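Example record

The entry below shows one chain as it appears in the dataset: sequence first, then structure tokens.
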Amino acid sequence: MTPREDVRLGPYTTLGVGGPARWFVETTDEAAVHEALAWARARGLGLRVLGGGSNVVVADAGVAGLVVKLATRGLEAREVGAAVELTAAAGEPWDALVAMAVGRGWAGLECLSGIPGLVGATPIQNVGAYGQEVSDTIVAVRALDTRDGAVISLDPPACRFAYRDSRFRSGEPGRFVVLAVTYRLRPGGAPTVAYADVARDLEARRVGAPTLPDVRASVLAIRRAKSMVLDPGDPNRRSCGSFFTNPIVSAAEAARVGAAAGDAAVPRWPQADGRVKLSAAWLIERAGFARGMRAGPVGLSTNHALAIVAHEGAAAADVVAFARRLATTVEGRFGVRLTWEPVLWEA
């Protein structure tokens, strides 16, 4: 293994900004991942793992240590009773995996169509959309423990999944390198139609008894209309997708937000624990930030207020400053703190 020096990371991310990695290597098999960890540990260097680059903001100064670009591939499916357990290597493209599952009639991932990135990122973020999240189907995460080099299998309780969160993201960030993920899917299962947007699209297309491909098509159409799919011809393409998670607050806080906005009809989704999920996009727009607005070389997507777009000439500092401005304004206006979805990589 021969890492390269001072490799610009911007081209490896969907935002397209950021400085170089001091050391960089691409790994196409698990043996190379182990070798990369040993190489970094022998030199006292930190190790960061880069997947599809759709959920990271790299600082302009770049990052120290070794950045490992995962490109491992491999799929295995096995029947377990009435279910199918599908194991995918961390470097497998996520949407291709969803398309394959839908094509084979395996339910459980169809609402997660069109999400950019690789399989390995899905348990870290507990990726979710339109009524599904990967923790609904994950049965095991195979990971390399960077503390001792051991490869372990973590079941869902050990992953500590939460809303857009997990042990890998906030509990022990950087400790584990995800090598593979196993999902339990339902052959012949009915698709999930839990969100009004999806139901409306199906109705508009006069789909009375939706199939998995029908729901996938609806989700892709909705995401495309919001510039939330990777499209080289889309002027909003340089983004991380949703930059903030939807905040979950108490019922009393949700009522206060409605009062502060002068609008009791705040978009809200009741949670099982009695709390309420609010729309971060709604809060941003009500705080005075319109879709398509610009702040120098950065701005909001013309199609969705949750996406920060890096236009020509933008630097990571511009993205970070704009994101902080949005969050500070929303908190000042409504008393609600917005949390980033992407991770900020700094030296």
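Notes for this example: The domain at 4-70 is CATH 3.30.43.10 (Uridine Diphospho-n-acetylenolpyruvylglucosamine Reductase; domain 2). The chain is about 30% helix and 25% strand.
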